[in-house]
Design goal:
Blueprint lengths: L20 H4 L12 H8 L9 H4 L7 H9 L3 H10 L4 H7 L6 H4 L1 H4 L7 H14 L15 E5 L3 H12 L3 E6 L7 H4 L8 H13 L3 E4 L9 H7 L2 E4 L5 E2 L12 E3 H13 L4 H4 L9 E5 L3 H12 L4 E5 L11 H9 L3 E3 L2 E9 L2 E15 L5 E14 L2 E4 L3 E2 L3 H4 L27 E3 L2 H4 L4 H26 L1
Helix pairs in contact: 2-4, 4-5, 5-9, 6-9, 10-20, 14-16, 16-17
């Protein structure tokens, strides 16, 4: 008898149950539930088991998506989970926050043929949560201790992924991070309605229980010289991410009431942990009762507008200089934001921040028009004559992206080479920097990007570090 995946698709695409917009904006809990057993198997059965699985090539991790969808459809759920975790150290996290519409689901053959994509991300999340609930997520227990140590600078997704693979291979691993909690942007940058913090913490707990050492609240290059980190380990991975915010350059952008997106999101997440946050309590990083304008069109901008709604903003507007089709953020997140009452001003760019030095009153914006596509396919824009207009605002949030810090200066390592974009230079397609025994992965190499790319880079870096240390051992033997 043919499997469910070898018949005509008759089950319609159905996403997991989602809370009503007027209910979900009252808190920061995740807005979607997991599948029921029947729904998860049914949605998995929609996979057509293509001879050439475009979903897999659309995934940066090249996850074995058709394999675990087939196993899930057949009710072989633990086997499906084993397939999912074989290629990803954070599958249940990627299932929640990856822009699947631009990656695996966007490449799905059903989607391209008009039958609607398989709900790949939701199934991945469902399997991951089930694995933790049923105890399928096993502790990190290396078969042999290698007697070598690796230092990882940065406790975000790239550092977590690398630590998982390295510790599994038997290396002693120490992760250094400037924050008081590990997780990087997973902990402090992404709001709980997309990624509840216990989901991150259980992964961190697994690392700690497996023997990974965390040194938190320590800034490498500040509190702790980078030279000491290198001296303490046989190899070092730099996975700091990029945190330096791009800022507005329009007149008035230095006024009180103009804040960086990450400062705003960190304050909100810290309040969620129950921390004392004076800038939030004093109103500087709190949208309650305010008219909010967020400038930017990526996923960070969507995190900001949806956070502002939950904080009780009087109004929330997203200002983006291109149109909806050219927005870099997830289409799913834009739809969620619209459901929650966010107003989008497409093809509009900021020209000035209005008000006084101690108080913002609005944003003067300029209508834009699409001009011509670039070599990368993104359209350039040009001002529309006479297209200026004003938006009232008490809080302006800059969500314009992030730049790397000056790591050679911070680490006091002038021989640590940079690219023209100030990211760390690595040799060819490797993760090796210009310092012997120092590797780099994630956004600090590729620039601000997706969590799934950071996971891939961290896993690849771990494999490369393992090969490098093994080769040194063999040469010394």
């Amino acid at each position: 008898m043919a499997s469910a995946n070898q018949t005509f698709v008759i089950i319609p695409r159905t996403a997991p149950a989602k809370a009503r917009a007027d209910d979900r904006v009252r808190g920061f809990g995740e807005i979607q539930a997991d599948f029921t057993l029947a729904a998860g198997a049914g949605q998995s059965s929609r996979c057509a088991q293509c001879g050439v699985p475009f979903c897999q090539t659309g995934c940066p991790l090249e996850n074995n998506i058709p394999d675990w969808l087939k196993l899930a459809a057949e009710g072989r759920l633990e086997e499906a989970w084993r397939q999912a975790e074989a290629t990803s150290t954070l599958p249940e996290i990627c299932g929640r926050i990856c822009p699947q519409d631009r990656l695996c689901e966007g490449a799905c053959t059903l989607e391209r043929s008009g039958w609607e994509t398989v709900t790949i991300g939701s199934v991945e999340r469902w399997l991951g949560d089930m694995a933790f609930d049923k105890g399928w997520v096993t502790p990190l227990r290396p078969l042999v201790e290698r007697g070598r140590s690796v230092g990882v600078v940065g406790a975000g997704p790239a550092g977590m992924a690398a630590a998982d693979r390295l510790r599994s291979a038997g290396y002693a691993v120490t992760i250094y991070d400037r924050h008081d909690r590990a997780g990087g942007l997973l902990t402090y940058g992404i709001p709980g309605f997309k990624l509840e913090k216990p989901v991150v913490q259980r992964r961190l707990d697994r690392l700690a229980d497996g023997g990974v050492t965390f040194r938190l609240g320590v800034e490498v290059g500040g509190d702790l010289p980078f030279a000491q980190v290198r001296a303490a380990h046989d190899a070092v991975l730099v996975a700091t991410g990029v945190y330096q915010a791009r800022r507005l350059t329009a007149p008035g952008c230095g006024s009180d009431g103009v804040v960086a997106a990450l400062d705003y999101l960190i304050a909100s997440n810290r309040k969620g942990f129950g921390d004392a946050v004076p800038a939030f309590d004093g109103g500087a990083l709190n949208a309650a009762g305010k008219r909010v304008v967020v400038v930017g069109g990526g996923d960070t901008a969507m995190d900001c507008v949806r956070t502002a709604v939950r904080q009780g903003a009087a109004s929330v507007t997203c200002l983006y200089r291109r149109d909806r089709d050219n927005m870099p953020g997830s289409a799913r997140e834009v739809a969620h934001a619209e459901e929650e009452g966010v107003v989008f001003e497409w093809l509009a760019a900021p020209r000035a921040v209005l008000g006084e030095a101690d108080r913002v009153t609005g944003v003067r914006a300029q209508r834009m028009a699409l001009a011509a596509p670039s070599a990368e396919g993104r359209w350039s824009v040009e001002p529309v004559p006479g297209g200026e207009f004003d938006l009232p605002a008490d809080l302006v949030i800059e969500a314009l992206g992030f730049e790397p810090e000056d790591l050679p200066a911070l680490f006091d390592e002038p021989d640590l080479a940079l690219t023209d974009w100030r990211t760390l230079r690595t040799a060819g397609r490797t993760k090796a920097t210009t310092l012997e025994g120092v590797f780099a992965a994630g956004d600090i190499v590729r620039g601000a990007s997706l969590v799934v790319w950071a996971v891939k880079d961290g896993q690849d870096a771990a494999a490369e570090i393992d090969a490098w240390l093994t080769a040194r051992e063999q040469a010394a033997a």
